[in-house]
Amino acid sequence: MAIFGSLIKSLIEIKENFTSEEDAVKQQEEVLRELLKKAQDTAFGKHYHFEEILEAENMQKAFAEKVPYFDYNKIASQWWDRYHEGEEDVTWPGKPPYFALSSGTTGKTSKRIPVTQDMLDAIRSAGIKQVSALSNFDLPADFFEKEIMMLGSSTDLHKEGDHEEGEISGISASNIPFWFRSYYKPGEEIAKIDEWDERVQKIAENAKNWDIGALSGIPSWMELMLKKVIEYHKVSNIHEIWPNLQVYASGGVAFEPYEKSFDALMGKPVQVIDTYLASEGFLALQNRPDTHSMKLITDNGIYFEFVPFKPEYINEDGSLTDDAPVVHLNEVEEEIDYVLLISTVSGAWRYIIGDTIKFTDKEKLEIRITGRTKFFLNVVGSQLSVNKMNDAVQELEEEFDIKVPEFVVCAKRAEDGEYYHFWYLGTTDDANPEKLAEALDRNLKNANKNYSVARSKALKGVKVHTVDPDIFHDWNGENKKKGGQVKMEKVMKEDKFKEFEEFVAKR
Fold it and tell me: Total structural domains in the chain?
């Protein structure tokens, strides 16, 4: 009998039973108040008169009126870069001990996002909330005695002056509490290996030594790791190596595009739990089964605002127009795409994280990530967001019985001078590209009236190429790096798409 596991499970259930639901709107007001109080004497707080905002009759309205929107380039050039020049108390008291490197989905140059001790405490608190929520998933007691494979970036952080730098998953893993280290795999030694392929090779070599009950990481890289372990040990599925694997905590992107190819690596069903841990903080977590939606964490050092995701409010670089309207938590509507803004205990203010979300259940505060502000295809009025593309590709998977975990699309003129959407679909299954193009076009017409209108006017059609999904991973490796927080960009402009096609042609 799993005595220790039963004890842990009982403690978790007791904690959940005694945790009451709070008013999320009031929680958010209090979070904003605490953020403003703590940062009012920083250079940023003085510049934007936080003291006056705190005294305003409507604090949230005053905050929105006095502080502009910031994307990364704007806040870094105007404020965060001052940390690297030796200043302190810039956007948050003191100096951040870490900077999270995030290449996001565009370009080779990493963003450097401050990570304060307050943020690390918030991430740890959110992690405890996630563990507590496991009591809702009807897991057996022995699950709580198994090890957890956290497939993030290297924990070997780089010292830069008075701070350390690395990806957020590496920073978080390097700060795991001592009591968790015996559960944590691949362990400190392997986790410090910087080179992705070498790290995964070591994981494969040691896989049989571990009793893994849960996985955690971005789907695309998790798939690659699992395939490597399966290949190395010459087995048909991962449960032949880890028979007690029961949970996968996905994160960073929507899981659905990877669901079919992920399931093919399993020997039995695994409970998938979505999480939303970005370089800027731990924003949401799935706290119940039978959904892919995640509950916003409204009491943990992050204040949320939402801008309706409409073409007239989005600049070409993915930033917001100055006149884009903002709504607060009590004003959101279900099934509407919003650009997510956050203000945090790391000194991000009205920050455009780059993701779009929608509320699937306002009462439960549940959201889903629907795409990226930069992945909005509107060259000829098609107004396609990533979630519409994901849905259309999933329909292809069902119709043709294929797996398509990765894709990329670009709108450009063909040799006949007409505009087409050029798609590269990552699949190793046999399928006729022309039939795929017809079905993809049909699915998008049915899902999006703007696309349907565009197809009757400036958009001539769809062209499809199929390639091995590994090409997308190799492209990432060539342009950024493998593993960690790196995500594949779904929509490319013509110059980047040309480079991608040239890369594919060399394979």
Answer: 3
Query: Mean pLDDT per segment of 10 residues, for the chain of length 507 residues?
Result: 42 48 88 97 97 96 95 94 94 94 58 92 87 83 86 79 82 72 83 87 95 89 92 97 93 80 93 89 91 92 93 77 91 92 97 91 92 62 70 88 88 82 90 90 80 74 89 79 67 86 86
279 plus 145 within the same structural domain: yes
Residue 34: domain span:
24-101+293-372
For 10, phi and psi rounded to 5 degrees? -65, -40
441 and 314 share a domain?
no
CA trace torsion 345, 348, 352, 356 (10° rounding): -10
Q: Which of 285, 316, 336 is the last residue of a domain?
A: 285
Q: Which amino acid is at 113?
A: I
Query: Same domain, yes or no, for 128 and 277?
Result: yes
H/E/C letters for each residue in 113-172? EEECHHHHHHHHHHHHHHHHHHHHHCCCHHHHHCEEEECCCCCCCEEECCEEEECHHHHH
Residue whose C-alpha is closest to residue 372's, from 443, 309, 449 = 309
- Find the CATH number of the domain harbouring 247: 3.40.50
